[in-house]
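User: Show me a protein chain along with its predicted structure.
Assistant: Here is one chain, sequence first, then structure tokens.
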Amino acid sequence: WILFESGQFLFMSTMENSPLPNATQPVKDPVWDVCTRFNKIASTLYGPRGKLGCVPSAISALHASCGELCDNISRVAHSDSFFNSPLARLILREVSRHATTYGDGSCFLLLFMTTLVLHAKDQLPHIALPIVEFAFETCMKWTVEFINNEDLNPTKRTINFGSLDDLLAVVCTVLSGNPILQLDAVTLQYLASQVVKAYIVSIEEDSQSPIRFQTCMDSSITQEEMQKGCQVVEGVLIDWQLSLESTVLLAKWATRNQPGSGDELRVILFDVCIEPSVDHLFKTVEPQQKNSNWFQEFVEWMKQLSVSVVMSQKVIHPRLKSLLAYNNILSIERLSIRHIEAVRQLTACTVLSNICMTDSDVSVLGRVAEIKEVEICSKRFIQLTPVAPTDNSVDENENTPKPQSVVTLFLVGNNDIWLQAVQKLCQNALKVIQLASAHPFGVIGGCCFESHLIQYLQHCCLPTKLQQELPTATHTILHHVKLCGNVFIQAIKRTMQDFLHCPPNHSTFEECFTQLQTKNDCTVFYTNFSTGQEGGKPPAGCFLWDCCGDVRQYSTTNYNSDGVPGCGVLEVAQGRIGALHTAVETALLLLRMDNTLVVVD
């Protein structure tokens, strides 16, 4: 599978510096060579039974026994690898751009684009490039019309955000098929439900709250504990163990402030060391305000501002921490940059880069509803709970930043690679849901969409239909356009073949393909629709392939009831259109470059 679908590759480091077997060598046809290599990679990774791809890395920091997920292939691959050739970097840039924008469909993009180039160079060598461009662009226009027209496209479905089944079908489509995760149907369904829950909880009246990811790695954790540990947590989780006096102070707060009491805690946030020895960072009134006097002055300053929590990106002096705890003020130190930004969003405080004890401006302070220490999967975390949404409008000054309801999706795993993969896939799933919220339409996956699209394009490539597109064209040009259209159709059919991982001209694939086309037969319907005649209608139910190649009828509820993968595959239509557009445009660009590249042996 890897990791084009999530925009990543798995890199294994190699200690030797010798050239790789796949190192770039002078070839007579660079476009054919690069597209052949990428086509082989994409066809191996594509589909629910796709394999895991590993690429040797030139980074010596990685040990031979470990791996790392990475988006930038050219940065970590060997310099003499074909991944660093100009054409390969061009292709990977388009794939990465699509993954960043749409979050899904990158492997299909790479497979369809390279297949289109290879078929065009193999079957259309004597046809003028402008005719090929016109034919591919016309087929792309017909494809977009087919996707957007509900009367033509039986696979089109409205994604109902009031239906949990629809949202789970979209998320499960993104999460399923990754060999790194090895998720069974129950675990996949549970993880998808947590992603959907995080999205729903993050939605506010006029905006969407940030969704953070917090991971916890424990090599001794079991599969059942991993499933229970993955959960949605309100607020921010900080993976830092408190001191004993801070733990006692939190316990005292828990007995004093019961949930729902309405009390808020004021927070001040620094990104500097809080200790008197770093004099150049402090703006004190007099030089003698140091050591013991300085500690007392700082505590009095916090009490004057009614601060309950002091946080810092760097260290806080141990004596100052003890003195703050004695005065019922909690101190949290060594926050990472990731935590600093999350705390700033949740509390609406201003990050202070200096300490000025004469400053009494309370606008720099933030607010939280509660701070407590929680234990998840034998790990302890500090949880910051945001203030209630009704309290966000209390600020008198409209220019004052208001607290946001940050949501944390907590993920647990027994190795770093698994955690990286599941976090990236969850991020992509959230990106797909956000795309669906703007364009709430989807198409049925499992090659059901491709099955209907092939039938429609075959109808569009008939001589009568082509004559309507080119009324003044000669018979030769119409014949060439039809040949180009057939190549476009063959490229789509090849993606269906690679979905099942069947070799070319294999009887098993032809039997599966014929069975699927028979179930989804719409030939008479498309013919009558274009001519305005009555008769013929699309099939009552759409059929698709599951991961075993069996034909099943699409139903989102089937996925929830029996847990069989493949019968609830729903892809966002806008993402599929984007993948097809990028594939066609990149393929045409490579075909244009094919006539201009000169290789010196």
